[in-house]
Amino acid sequence: MTNNNNSTSFQISLEYFHTSSTEIENNSMVLHDISVELARDETRRALMKGHNVFSTILIDDAETCHSTKVELVNSLLMHLKGLNYEPNSIVFESELSPIIPVVLEGLQDKHVYNSLVRYRNQKGKIPCSLKIAAWYLLRLGLITPATTSTGGFIDDKFFSNKVVSILPFYCKPPEDRAELIIHASKWADKANDRIIQKYYHTEYLKNYPIMDGPNKSMERIACGKRSC
Residue 87 burial by CB count (10 A; 0-12/13-18/19+): exposed, middle or buried? Predict the structure, then answer.
């Protein structure tokens, strides 16, 4: 969504509806419907300030499912069409793999680097926090993008001055670790104050207010059943 009325406007990368391949396949996406309302409000506020918004969705496809990526995207878009808020871009987490080495090479803290490499070697998979860090740096245009099967990185409009992610509350721990990774990288100064997370609860939905992270209170317990 574009607003051309303000010469001082900048672009915001707005992530919402952080679902998984299994949630889409099992038709349990309704847990994230509240994020559409929050994204719509965020978009309206940004446009009123003269900013442009590029909406995007990151799908967690770590778990095995029987549907193809095309089928998953079509199911997701059909669901979002019913909510009247479709994204400009859809990306699968597995498609971030080619840029993970770029993030590792950019780390300036040996302890953080060794910890991430050790996890990857022991677990045989990329830490979620590392993928999130790559996701933020990519959206900010600070690292070279890869081309994905969904075409998520092809359009130059993908890169933004600021990123806002509306996420289920259970994603907060890896999100916090991702910020530590970025702070330990050569991009720390360029990414400073350009990343904002806002959290919602997937069980009780509207009974809980949106919570800004990572410095707000964590007195309420996360209700989500899926760990990010």
Answer: buried
SS3 of residue 153 by DSSP: coil
- Measured between alpha carbons, how far is 167 from 164 in angstroms, rounded to an integer? 10
In a domain, 121, yes or no: no
Element (H, E) at 15: strand 11-15
Instruction: Please state, in angstroms and rounded to a whole number, the distance separating the CA atoms of residues 107 and 127.
Output: 15
What does the H/E/C string look like for 46-102? HHHCCCEEEEEEEEECCCCCCCCHHHHHHHHHHHHHHCCCCCCEEEEHHHHHHHHHH
Answer yes or no: is 16 within a domain: yes
Specify the 3-state DSSP secondary structure of 138: helix
The answer to whether residue 82 is domain-embedded is yes
> Which residues span the domain enclosing 37?
11-95+145-176+191-213
The answer to the question of residue 204 being in a domain is: yes
Report the domain count for the chain: 1
Distance between CA 122 and CA 85 in Å, rounded?
40
pLDDT tens, position by position, for the chain (228 residues)?
655 555 477 899 999 999 999 999 998 888 899 999 999 999 999 999 999 999 999 999 988 788 899 999 999 999 999 999 999 999 999 989 889 999 999 999 999 999 999 999 999 999 999 999 999 999 999 987 654 445 555 556 788 999 999 998 889 999 999 999 999 999 999 999 999 999 887 654 444 344 344 333 322 323 333 445
pTM above 0.70, yes or no: yes
> Which domain CATH number covers 90?
3.40.50
